[in-house]
Design brief:
The complex is a heterodimer of chains A (348) and B (314). By secondary structure, chain A is of the alpha/beta class. Chain A is built from 13 helices and twelve strands. Chain B is globular and about 65 Å long. The chains are: A alpha/beta (348), B mainly alpha (314).
Chain lengths: 348, 314
C-alpha cells in the first residue's frame, strides 16, 4: 500500500497559536511585541495539554472515528490541544509516535492492532509521555495503557430488540472479519436475540476487510434473500441494503439512524469520551499509569449505550421497550453480566 | 443443503451476479483495450479509486449523477493519459509507472476527499442510481427481473461488450490498435502511428476504469469511502488474462467471478457445518485461478505487451 499519511491540524488548536508559531513570530517581532505575545499566549499555553492520536486507517473507519470524535469533544470541553495523523502504515507507526513524543505531546492515543510490537517498543523510549492505545492485549509499564471497544452490553440489548422484532425468526449480522473485537459484539447480539426468542435462527457473513461497503451490501442482500428480516450492520453498507429491501437494521459504533430513519431501530454506541476524559485527567495530575482503560467503555461508565430509538420510539411495542429497560437496569446495577464470547460466530 | 439450492434458484441471486459483475466487466474491458495496444496499465486500482472519488464529488455538488459518471470517466482518461505519457511517450517501464500511478491516485483521492469533505463522522451520500426496469422486457418471467431490472450503467456495459468487439475486430482503428500491440514495427511500416494509437487505447481504457469506479460509489453504493475499490482493479488485471484479451471472454470472466462471489455470500448465510468463513471468501479467487489455469493454457498475450515502441530504432 502507499506510504503517504495525511496530517491534519485541528482548526481549534490552529486558532490558539501553537508554541512553534509563537517562537518563530517572536524572532521576527519587536521586543515589545514579543513580550506582549509571550504574556498573552504564555498563560493559556501553560495549562493546555497537548494530545495527539495516530490511526492506522482514515478516520472514517467507525472504530477510529469514535476516538477522534471523543478527542474533538475534549478540545471543546477540556481545552486540550489536539493533532492527529491518519492512515499511518505499520512501518511508519514508530516514526510518527516519536515525532509526537519529541514534539512535546504529553498524551498519545491510537490503534495499535496493526503495529502492536512497534508501538510498545517506541513507548518505552519516551517514559515521560503517556501512551493510550486500542489493543487486544494488556497494558505495559511504565506508560503504555490500553483500551478497547467493550460495547457488547448494548450489542446484547440490541439483540433483544432484534429477536422480538423479527417476524421470520431469522436475524443476521454482516461483519468485517472474525477478530475478537468484532466477534464479541456479534455473539452478544445473537445472545440477546436468542434470549428474546429462543427459536431465533442466526446468519453471519464476513466481508474479509474493514471497508468494502458494496460487498457488505451484497452480503446483506444475500442474507435478506435467505429470510433475514432484522440485520446487525457491524459495517457500513448493510443499512442501505436493509433500507432498499424494506427490512430492519441495527447500527453499530455510532447513532446511524439518520442514514435510514425508517430502517435503523437502534444500535450499540461506543463513546470514547469517558476513557479520554479519565486519561487526560490523570495526565494533567501527573499520575497516568499503565493500565487497562477498557472498563471506561462499559455502559456503567457511560462508555457505551444503546442509541436513541428516534422514529422507533412509537413503533417499538411497549413490551419490548420494557424488556430492554429491565435488562439495562440489571446491567447497570451489576446484577447481569453479558458474556464475552470471542469465538467466530457461524450461521445456523 | 436444500436451503442453499433454494437460494441459488432465486431471482435475487442472478440479479446479484449481474450487479457484482458490472464494475468488474467495465474495468476488465478497459484494461483489455489498453493491453491489446501493448500497454499494461497497473494504475487501474488507483484510477478506479480516484475516479470513484471525483465522480462522487461531482455528483454530490451538482446533484446530477450522470455528470458524476462523466467526471469519473474524464478523471480515468486523464490519469491514463499520464500513464501513457510515461510508458508510451517516454517508453518507461510499464510496471513501475503503473504502480506509481496507483500510489499517486490513491494519495490524491484521500487528500482531496479530506479537503473537500471535512466532517468524517457522517459519510456524505448521494441519491444513487435506481434500478430501471425496461418496459415489456422486464415482464418476461424469470429472465425479466434478472436481466431487465438493473442499473442503466449495467445496460450500457452489456451494450459495450459487442460494441467494443466490433470496433476491435471490424474497424480500421481496431486493426491499428491490435497491430500496435502485436507488431508495432509492421504497423509503423504500414503508416500507422503506433504512439497515437497506444495513447488513444490507454486513454479509452482509463475512461472505462473510471466509469467502473463511479458504478461502485453511485450505483452499487451511495458514498465514497476508502476501501471502496478493495482490489477490484487487481482482479480485473487477472480477468483480462483469463479472458484471453477478448471482449466477450473478458465479460464472461467477470460474470464467472461475480457468480462465485454471489454463491460465496449465500453459502456464508447458509451455515453449512463449521467451515471457517475465510474459506468462502477465498472461493472466487481460487475458482478464477483454477479456471484460468485450465482454460487459458494456450492464451498468448499481445506480443508487444510491455515493449515500448521507438520509431526507427532496431
Amino acid at each position: 500500500m502507499n506510504k503517504n499519511w495525511i496530517q491534519v491540524e485541528d482548526k481549534m488548536s490552529d486558532r490558539n497559536n501553537s508554541t512553534g508559531v509563537v517562537t518563530r513570530r517572536s524572532l521576527l517581532a519587536t521586543a515589545a511585541a514579543a513580550a506582549a505575545t509571550g504574556l498573552s499566549a504564555g498563560g493559556a499555553e501553560a495549562a493546555k495539554l497537548k494530545v495527539a492520536s495516530i490511526f492506522a486507517t482514515p478516520i472514517e473507519e467507525p472504530w477510529d472515528n469514535q476516538i477522534h470524535v471523543a478527542l474533538q469533544k475534549a478540545v471543546k470541553e477540556l481545552g486540550i490541544e489536539y493533532k492527529w495523523s491518519e492512515k499511518v502504515e505499520a512501518a511508519d507507526f514508530s516514526r510518527v509516535m516519536t515525532e509526537y513524543a519529541k514534539g512535546g505531546y504529553q498524551l498519545v492515543l491510537g490503534d495499535a492492532f496493526a503495529a502492536e510490537r512497534e508501538s510498545r517498543r517506541t513507548a518505552k523510549q519516551f517514559p515521560k509521555t503517556a501512551f493510550l492505545f486500542g489493543s487486544g492485549s494488556g497494558p505495559a509499564e511504565p506508560n503504555f495503557g490500553v483500551f478497547d471497544n467493550w460495547i457488547h452490553e448494548p450489542a446484547y440489548l440490541s439483540g433483544l430488540i432484534a429477536g422480538k422484532m423479527s417476524k421470520s425468526g431469522v436475524v443476521g449480522a454482516v461483519a468485517a472479519m472474525g477478530i475478537p473485537e468484532v466477534n464479541r459484539l456479534v455473539n452478544a447480539f445473537f445472545a440477546g436475540a436468542r434470549e428474546a426468542n429462543p427459536k431465533v435462527k442466526k446468519k453471519v457473513a464476513f466481508i474479509g476487510s474493514f471497508f468494502d461497503p458494496p460487498k457488505a451490501k451484497e452480503a446483506a442482500i444475500a442474507q435478506i434473500d435467505a429470510g433475514v428480516d432484522v440485520i446487525y450492520a457491524e459495517r457500513f453498507g448493510v443499512i442501505e441494503a436493509a433500507k432498499e429491501k424494506g427490512k430492519l437494521a441495527i447500527s453499530n459504533m455510532s447513532d446511524q439512524s439518520s442514514l435510514a430513519p425508517d430502517t435503523v431501530i437502534t444500535g450499540p454506541v461506543w463513546d470514547m469520551y469517558p476513557t479520554v476524559h479519565q486519561a487526560i485527567k490523570l495526565v494533567k495530575a501527573g499520575v497516568f499509569t499503565a493500565m487497562d482503560y477498557g472498563d471506561f467503555s462499559r455502559m456503567v461508565k457511560g462508555g457505551s449505550y444503546l442509541a436513541p430509538y428516534h422514529k422507533f420510539e412509537t413503533i417499538l411495542p411497549a413490551e419490548v421497550k420494557d424488556m430492554v429497560e429491565k435488562k439495562k437496569a440489571e446491567i447497570l446495577d451489576g446484577n447481569f453480566r453479558v458474556d464475552v464470547d470471542e469465538n467466530t460466530p457461524v450461521s445456523d | 443443503m436444500n436451503a442453499v439450492l433454494e437460494q441459488l434458484l432465486q431471482v435475487g441471486f442472478f440479479a446479484a451476479i449481474i450487479r457484482i459483475a458490472t464494475p468488474l466487466a467495465l474495468a476488465t474491458l478497459g484494461e483489455m483495450i489498453s493491453e491489446r495496444s501493448g500497454v499494461l496499465n497497473l494504475g487501474i486500482e488507483g484510477i478506479m479509486l480516484l475516479s470513484a472519488m471525483t465522480g462522487f464529488t461531482a455528483a454530490y455538488y451538482s446533484g446530477n449523477l450522470w455528470l458524476g459518471v462523466l467526471a469519473a470517466a474524464a478523471t480515468g482518461a486523464a490519469m491514463a493519459a499520464l500513464h501513457a505519457l510515461f510508458t508510451v511517450g517516454l517508453g518507461l517501464s510499464q510496471h513501475v509507472c503503473g504502480i506509481g500511478i496507483t500510489l499517486f491516485c490513491t494519495g490524491l483521492a484521500f487528500f482531496f476527499f479530506r479537503l473537500i469533505f471535512v466532517d468524517s463522522s457522517r459519510p456524505p451520500t448521494v441519491e444513487s442510481f435506481a434500478a430501471v426496469s425496461l418496459p415489456l422486457l422486464s415482464a418476461i418471467p424469470i429472465l425479466g427481473p434478472v436481466l431487465f431490472n438493473q442499473f442503466t450503467l449495467t445496460y450500457l456495459t452489456v451494450i459495450a461488450v459487442p460494441v467494443i468487439a466490433v470496433v476491435l475486430y471490424r474497424t480500421p482503428w481496431g486493426l491499428n490498435l491490435r497491430m500496435a500491440g502485436e507488431n508495432p514495427r509492421a504497423a509503423d511500416a504500414a503508416g500507422v502511428s503506433v504512439m497515437a494509437t497506444r495513447f488513444q487505447a490507454v486513454i479509452l481504457g482509463g475512461a472505462l476504469m473510471g466509469v467502473a469506479g463511479a458504478f461502485l460509489t453511485m450505483a452499487q453504493f451511495n458514498t465514497f469511502t476508502f476501501g471502496v475499490i478493495s482490489g477490484r482493479g487487481w482482479i480485473a488485471i487477472a480477468l483480462v488474462v483469463f479472458g484471453r484479451w477478448d471482449p466477450w471472454r473478458c465479460a464472461g470472466a467477470a460474470l464467472l467471478f461475480a457468480f462465485v462471489d454471489a454463491v460465496q455470500l449465500r453459502l456464508q448465510a447458509a451455515g453449512i457445518g463449521h467451515i471457517p468463513y475465510e474459506a468462502f471468501l477465498v472461493l472466487p479467487f481460487v475458482f478464477t485461478i483454477a479456471a484460468m489455469a485450465v482454460m487459458s493454457r494456450n492464451a498468448a498475450a499481445p506480443p508487444a505487451l510491455l515493449k515500448p515502441f521507438r520509431k526507427e530504432e532496431r
